[in-house]
């Protein structure tokens, strides 16, 4: 049987974290009521004129620098002409001839070791609106809130050969962009989207096969499933003597099935020409040097610092630095006096447990660094014990509550009154003669039952260390 090789390139769209749109002052906030974040510019009204948002250029260039690209210091915008109901102008403002970033790469880890995935270009453009299909009323509704939201499109070379390499590349891109603060890269909200260009060829063949582009991919798991599905579909076609058609396909993750949307367009189909309403962009050497100097501490440097400065194990440093939001929580806690390992333990154990239970990504945690620092201080100051701490942490994880107020409102402070505690312990000793006899007979583990009974009697509010010490003294 013939052996086939998969050839994959990606077009990754990233919504930038600006407060306003790329060519107008409308809000980019996610989740507003339909058509409330709009104006004549982003709805394509005749006579309206675009004005470029400078922050978009800064973010795009910063991503280019972080991905080893050459920055095009004299670039411009072009019009990409096509009709679609969610495209109010009947053209999209994008960059074809002089994209802002070119010829870069990111390095990923594969089973065979490190590999460079080349980046052909990064260009700036505006997002389209959103169509909402109403099957009940048999119609489609248009929401223009997203129209004009600034995007960068990161176009890779066809250097990836498996779903694993694609996911490694996307995770690396997401990490770089999040560390820069250029986007939150939330796939579930559409702020990071990937289109997969895939073809297959016989192993050893020099020419690429016919490629298809798969859209509607909003999670890493969906991307991996779509790649495996499309690879098998193309191989089945070739094995049965049929041809692969160059087309755009839509992936349905629920049915794990893709279907053809339209024949694949080429650049000439869009009739690109320079946008007459926007002046060229000139990036000075001084401005570019400032951007270079403002590049943040990325994962590799941060990981090394956590090991050396914080004394964290390599395993902890590896996991925490995968997600920028977790590094923000850790660093804020340490800056406020918490022990690094204690903070790391709560992030790595309880946070990851709750993340898994809720079915979300670790970078989607919503509790604030301030509340996390307050929470750790409650433990450090012996205000709450570890049992109560788990309850408080879960409430903070779910609703970002102020842990100090939560502890006060629910009367969860640890009871350190030694006289009251001594009376309770004496009752526990009197009511558990077998455990007492076992302990006094040399079974050190028997004290655990007595500690448990005391904690139960104090409704979990006592200090376990104090209970342990007083029990030993009384026995």
From TrEMBL:
E.C. number(s) listed in UniProt: 6.3.5.-
Superkingdom of source: Bacteria
Pfam family membership, one: GatB_N
Gene3D superfamilies membership: 1.10.10.410, GatB domain, N-terminal subdomain
Reactions the enzyme catalyzes: L-aspartyl-tRNA(Asn) + L-glutamine + ATP + H2O = L-asparaginyl-tRNA(Asn) + L-glutamate + ADP + phosphate + 2 H(+); L-glutamyl-tRNA(Gln) + L-glutamine + ATP + H2O = L-glutaminyl-tRNA(Gln) + L-glutamate + ADP + phosphate + H(+)
Keyword annotations of the record: ATP-binding, Ligase, Nucleotide-binding, Protein biosynthesis
SUPFAM superfamilies referenced in this protein's UniProt entry, alphabetically: GatB/YqeY motif, Glutamine synthetase/guanido kinase
Oligomeric and partner information: Heterotrimer of A, B and C subunits.
Function: Allows the formation of correctly charged Asn-tRNA(Asn) or Gln-tRNA(Gln) through the transamidation of misacylated Asp-tRNA(Asn) or Glu-tRNA(Gln) in organisms which lack either or both of asparaginyl-tRNA or glutaminyl-tRNA synthetases. The reaction takes place in the presence of glutamine and ATP through an activated phospho-Asp-tRNA(Asn) or phospho-Glu-tRNA(Gln).
UniProt name for this protein: Aspartyl/glutamyl-tRNA(Asn/Gln) amidotransferase subunit B
Gene name of the record: gatB
């Amino acid at each position: 049987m013939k052996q086939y090789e998969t050839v994959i390139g990606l077009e990754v769209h990233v919504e930038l974290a600006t407060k306003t749109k790329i060519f107008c002052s409308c809000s980019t906030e996610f989740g507003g009521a339909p058509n409330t974040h709009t104006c004549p510019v982003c709805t394509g009204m005749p006579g309206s004129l675009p004005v470029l948002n400078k922050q978009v250029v800064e973010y795009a260039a910063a991503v280019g620098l972080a991905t080893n690209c050459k920055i095009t210091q004299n670039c411009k915008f072009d019009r990409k002409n096509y009709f679609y109901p969610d495209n109010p102008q009947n053209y999209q403002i994008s960059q074809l001839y002089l994209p802002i970033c070119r010829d870069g790469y990111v390095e990923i880890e594969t089973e065979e070791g490190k590999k460079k995935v080349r980046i052909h270009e990064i260009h700036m453009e505006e997002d389209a609106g959103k169509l909402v299909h109403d099957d009940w009323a048999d119609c489609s509704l248009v929401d223009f809130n997203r129209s004009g939201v600034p995007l960068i499109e990161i176009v890779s070379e066809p250097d990836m050969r498996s779903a694993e390499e694609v996911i490694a590349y996307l995770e690396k891109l997401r990490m770089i962009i999040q560390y820069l603060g250029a986007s939150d890269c939330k796939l579930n909200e559409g702020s990071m989207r990937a289109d997969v260009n895939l073809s297959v060829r016989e192993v050893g063949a020099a020419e690429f096969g016919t490629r298809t582009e798969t859209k509607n991919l909003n999670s890493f798991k969906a991307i991996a499933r779509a790649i495996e599905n499309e690879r098998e579909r193309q191989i089945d076609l070739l094995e049965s003597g049929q041809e692969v058609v160059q087309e755009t396909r839509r992936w349905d993750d629920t049915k794990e099935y893709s279907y053809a949307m339209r024949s694949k367009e080429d650049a000439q189909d869009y009739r690109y020409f320079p946008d007459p309403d926007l002046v060229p962009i000139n990036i000075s050497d001084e401005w570019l040097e400032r951007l270079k100097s403002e590049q943040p501490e990325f994962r590799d440097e941060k990981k090394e610092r956590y090991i050396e400065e914080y004394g964290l194990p390599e395993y902890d440093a590896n996991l925490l630095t995968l997600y920028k939001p977790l590094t923000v929580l850790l660093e804020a806690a340490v800056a406020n006096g918490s022990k690094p390992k204690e903070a790391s333990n709560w992030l790595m154990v309880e946070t990851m447990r709750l993340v898994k239970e809720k079915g979300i990504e670790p970078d989607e945690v919503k509790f604030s660094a301030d509340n996390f620092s307050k929470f750790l201080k409650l433990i450090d100051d012996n205000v709450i014990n570890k049992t109560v701490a788990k309850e408080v942490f879960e409430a903070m994880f779910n609703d970002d509550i102020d842990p100090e107020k939560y502890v006060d409102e629910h009367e969860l402070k640890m009871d350190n009154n030694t006289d009251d505690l001594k009376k309770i312990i004496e009752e526990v000793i009197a009511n558990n003669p077998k455990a007492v006899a076992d302990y006094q007979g040399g079974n050190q583990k028997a004290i655990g039952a007595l500690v448990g009974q005391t904690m139960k009697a104090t409704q979990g509010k006592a200090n376990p260390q104090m209970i342990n010490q007083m029990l030993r003294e009384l026995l």
